[in-house]
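Carbohydrate ABC transporter membrane protein 1, CUT1 family (TC 3.A.1.1.-)
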Amino acid sequence: MKKDKQKQKTKLGFKDAISALKADWQIYVLLLPLVIWFLLFMYKPMYGLIISFKDYSLFKGIEASPWVGLDNFKELLFGAGSTYFWRAFKNTFLISFYGLIFGFPAPIILALMFNEVKDGIYRRGIQTLLYLPHFISEVIIAGIVIAFLQPQTGIINILLVKVGILEQGIYFLVKPEYFRSIYILSGMWKETGFASIVFFAALSGISPALYEAAKVDGATRIQQMLNVSIPGIAPTIIIMLIIRIGQLLSVGYERVLLLYQPVTYETADILNTYIYRLGLTGSTDFSLATAAVFFNAIIGFVLVRTANSISRKVSETALW
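C-alpha cells:
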C-alpha cells in the first residue's frame, strides 16, 4: 500500500511539473541560454580537476596520464616549494580579509547616505559618477594607480611632499609594506559605488510608514537610520556577507598581476598569481597548479558552509 501511494505521489509530482513547464514555457526558454552557459563554462571544466590526481602530460592527455593519487597535494602543501604556496595563501587571505573589514561596510554606508538624499536629480548624478569606475578595465585602473604613485610626477607624492610628510617622492609600488593598502584602496574606489546598488535597492523596499512612525515617536535622522534602515536591510547584508566570506581566497589576479613585481612578492603574491606562474610560466606544472586550484575551491566551499550555518543559527537568515 505504501509503495502504491509513493508511486501515485511520484506520478502526481511529475504531472504537476509538466503542467508548470507548459504553463510557463516562455520563462524556461529565456532561462535556457544561462543554463547552457553554466553547463559549458562552469560544470564541464570541472572534469579537468582530475589532472590534480595525475602526473599530467600535455602529449598523453588526461586519460592516458598516470594516476598519482594525492602526491600533487602533498607536494603542494609540504614539498620543497610549499613555502611559496603558503606565502601566497597567507597574502590572499590577508588581502581579502582586510578588504572584507574595510571594503564590505563601505557600500552599505554609501547606500545609507544615498537614501538620506531626497533630491532625486542630485542623487542620481552622484550615483552615476560613483558607478563609473566599475566599468573601467583593470588595465586602466592599474595605469591610473601607477601614474598617481610615480615618485616625481605622481599626484600622491607631490601632495605628500608639499604638506611636509615626505622630503622627496618614493616609489610606493616597490615597497612590499604598501602593496596591500594600495590594492585594497584602489579596489574600494573601483567597486564601492557599484556594490551599493544592492543595498540601496533593499533600502528602497522598506515601507515609508516605518519612517513616518519613527518620526511621530520623535526619532532623529540618525535614529531612523539605526532603528529602521539598517534592520530593514539586515537580511541582505547577511546574505552578501556569506557570499563575500566564500570568496576570501578568490582575490582577483588581474590588478595584482599588473601592479606587483618580484620585489613585492613577499606581500603581493596571491594564490591566483602563484597558480598562473606555476601552470603557465616557468615549469608549467599543470598537475600542481590544478591541485592548488582544487585546494582553493575546497577552502572556499568550507568557508561558505561554515558562514551559512553560523548565520542560520544566529540570525535565521541564510542562503539555504
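The chain has two domains: 1-38, 71-137+176-315.
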